[in-house]
Amino acid sequence: MRGSDSKGYPYLKNDTVLTRRLRRAAEEYVGKENVVDIDLTLGSEDFAYYSHQIPASFYRLGTRNETKGISSYVHTPTFDIDEDALRIGPGLMAWLAVKELMES
Q: Does the pTM exceed 0.90?
């Protein structure tokens, strides 16, 4: 993974094959129009450590809803969440797990 003299977080490594499968499953669950690619960013994420141990795929669950006036970015004083995401998130995670278990 990383040398013992490294500082900071490792890079996040999304497994290409796994990510494609999870994207298809997410599109089945929430609809293709609701699964979008986002710009690459430079940031740190604890999940990156896992991605160097096993195949991994990092995704973000959208919590914005501009029609409800919920549009601030995370880690800002005006951040809010569309609580509908709280209903979608657990179901999506369960669906992705079930689909992956069906693959094996």
A: no
